[in-house]
Amino acid sequence: MSALGSAPRPALETAAMVRAGELSAVEVLEHHLATIEAHEDDVRAFTLVTPDEARTQARAVDAAVAKGEDPGPLAGVPIALKDNLCTRGLPTTCSSRILDGWRPPYDATVVTRLAAAGAVSVGKTNMDEFAMGSSTETSAIGPTRNPHDLTRVPGGSSGGSAAAVAAGFAPLALGSDTGGSIRQPAALCGVVGLKPTYGTVSRYGLVAFASSLDQIGPFAGTVADAALLFDVIGGHDPLDSTSLNRPTPRVLSVLDEGVDGMTIGVLAEYLDGVDPDVAARVHQAAEALAAAGARIEEISVPEVALGLSAYYLIAPGEASSNLARYDGVRYGLRVDAEDTAGMNTATRSAGFGAEVKRRIMLGTYVLSAGYMDAYYNQALKVRTKIIEGFDRAYAQCDLLLGPTTPTTAFALGAKTEDPLTMYLSDVCTIPTNLAGHPAISVPFGTGDDGLPIGVQLLGPALAEGDLLRGAAVVEAAAPPMAPPALTASLRGGSQENREGVS
Amino acid sequence: MAEPARLTREDVAHVASLARLALSDDELDTFTWQLAEVLDHAADVSSLDLDGVAPTAHAMAVTNVMRLDEPQVCLDRDEVLAAAPDVEDYRFKVPRILGEAP
Predict the structure, then answer these.
(1) Of A161, A218, B30, B94, which residue is most buried, by most CB within 10 angstroms?
(2) What secondary structure letter does DSSP report for A241?
């Protein structure tokens, strides 16, 4: 293949070698482009691959090194971007027909920061349309497949980003997490996914779904790589008025400080109704944290059981307002009609898929006169109760531990007919978004079906440092997990797992 | 709090028109049961007694962000207009809005 060798190299190591002139960014990129070329037809992680732009970026990194300059902490590291992050002059579709062909006139702040840190963007990743979904199946271009089993979903909504990292298309990716859209696909694809504290990563240039819940965060193969990426993208941004104007935790530097002396609560409600093999992995992770010196307690936060219902009133409410902008006037699709109202309706009816229409209607309904108090306002009060419940827990514990998802990756098509069953796959991730807190999913072995399981650590606002320390301990104790068969085949192994998908 | 009446097909048709969505008869049928199912699940929220609990619209405290009223570089007009479906004299062009065409 290339001089890169067979094993995927962590971003930290790649950046260090590129900065030291021991490895060229172009060489790193070509290896990853070759991996994409070999397996993208199977995985379908991308809405767009941008080899030309990537080569330009990689050559600039190598040129900087040659001149004795430092290209930055992500020097030459390939990264995949969820397709709801604006990239100037490059299509940004949110996997929706309504934005087909749209080229944003500006870059998202995270895109600007990645470029300044020397990262090399390889493309835009597939997602549930407008990030509404838990399997990537609501994408207008069709689903992404889980690299560990092509007949299964990768999770969602950031399924393309999770699959891209799992398949070795890039060591890093960015996603967005509104109700679990980073952590859930990370768990199902066997990679690390961090949902940072609300406001620590600028949302400027992130196409809005539910503005009080949306947060950009990293996908990576290792906890250290996720920490590295968070350190690059975090920090105040005057272009996002909800960006926190206070110091963002730096996490890479505290990563190996361990959990000795921490108290970590195993969240009882998150183990209700999850598959036994998933629950067993959570208990095993708790034992590993205890062995590293943490005190483990069982803790109950009954309010989190209301999270799912509250979320599916609040998030659609915000979405119905945010998506009113797609009216066929300023950008995106227009379907002509005699008058403007007719044009708006024709455009939106043709441009949005079924799940987006469902959420817009649900949101419009719960915000309408006569129903707002019973649904939307009531959900906002539940949000207060959930935050109070977490506050009570964090008065006793530094972090909480639970599963990321109730099951391993489910089959493509298994939940597309009944939206409520799909929504239930986010039951363990949603409360974190309602509270604005950070949480991370760390791969922790496999289930009875051989598919990846993620365990989740949760922390209070701005506790990313503690969270990543805990995650590093969990990662070090994780049972082995075979890499996807796709990657094995690239290394000259079997191709067995590449069949059986229609 | 009293629970609202169950969502009807007429409710869905009304909401769709408010949201500028045209639905087929089949879509109306499907969306009606699907949305009713989600709202039924939300009954555990709508039926709670939460009198006296303050609502939270935003988890982190947010305040208005002010800056000095000084001109700054903004998006390029031509680049922005180039993304529009229809443009005339540097303005977004739409079909007629009111009554009969002139």
Answers:
(1) A161
(2) T
Selecting from A338, A340, A361 the residue whose C-beta is nearest the C-beta of B12 gives A361
The per-residue pLDDT for A459 is: 98
Residue A82 a catalytic site member: yes
Q: Is B7 exposed, middle or buried (0-12, 13-18, 19+ CB in 10 A)?
A: buried
DSSP for B31-66 reads HHHHHHHHHHHTHHHHTS--TTPPP-S-SS------
From chain B, the residues in CB contact with A354 under 8 A are 27
Rounded to a whole number of angstroms, the distance from the CA of B8 to the nearest CA of chain A is 11
Q: What is the DSSP string of A168-233?
A: TS-SEEEEE-SSSTTHHHHHHHTSEEEEPPTTSB--TTBPPSSTTT--EEEEESSHHHHHHHHHHH
Tokens 């007949």: give the residue.
A151
Q: Which of B8, B45, B78 to mutate to test the interface with A (most CBs of A within 10 A)?
A: B45
Asked whether the beta carbons of A161 and A174 are under 8 A apart, the reply is yes
Catalytic residue among A24, A82, A96, A135: A82
**Residue at which a domain ends, from A335, A358, A380:** A380
- For the stretch A66-113, pLDDT in tens is 999 999 999 999 999 999 999 999 999 999 999 998 999 999 999 999
Does residue A2 form part of some domain?
no
Phi, psi of A230 (to 5 degrees): -60, -40
pLDDT at B100: 63
| Residues paired with residue A154 on neighbouring β-strands, in sequence order | none
Which of A157, A176, A320, A425 does the annotation list as catalytic?
A: A157
- Tell me how far apart the alpha carbons of residues A31 and A5 are, in angstroms, rounded to a whole number: 9
Q: What is the DSSP string of A5-60?
A: -SSPPPHHHHHHHHHTTSS-HHHHHHHHHHHHHHHHHHH--EEEE-HHHHHHHHHH
- A positions 311-330 inside 8 Å of B (CB): 312-313, 320, 327-330
Measured between CA atoms, how close is A346 to chain B, in angstroms?
7
Q: A-chain residues within 8 Å CB-CB of B31? A: 357-358, 361
Structure tokens at A452: 């990846």
Chain B residue numbers touching A365 (CB-CB < 8 A): 7, 11, 15, 35, 39
Residue A326 belongs to domain spanning: 307-380
CATH of B1-50, one of 3.40.50.1820, 1.20.1530.20, 3.40.50.720, 1.10.20.60: 1.10.20.60
Tokens of A228: 């590295």
A275 pLDDT more than 70:
yes
Number of domains into which chain A is organized: 2
- Boundary of a domain, candidates A380, A414, A440: A380
Residue with tokens 């649904």: A375
- Cα distance between residue A354 and residue B25, in whole Å: 14
The question of whether A181 is a catalytic residue gets the answer yes
Contact B45 A313 (CB under 8 A): yes
Q: pLDDT tens across A316-375, in order?
A: 999 999 999 999 999 999 999 999 999 999 999 999 999 999 999 999 999 998 899 999
A361/B35 touch (CB, cutoff 8 Å), yes or no: yes
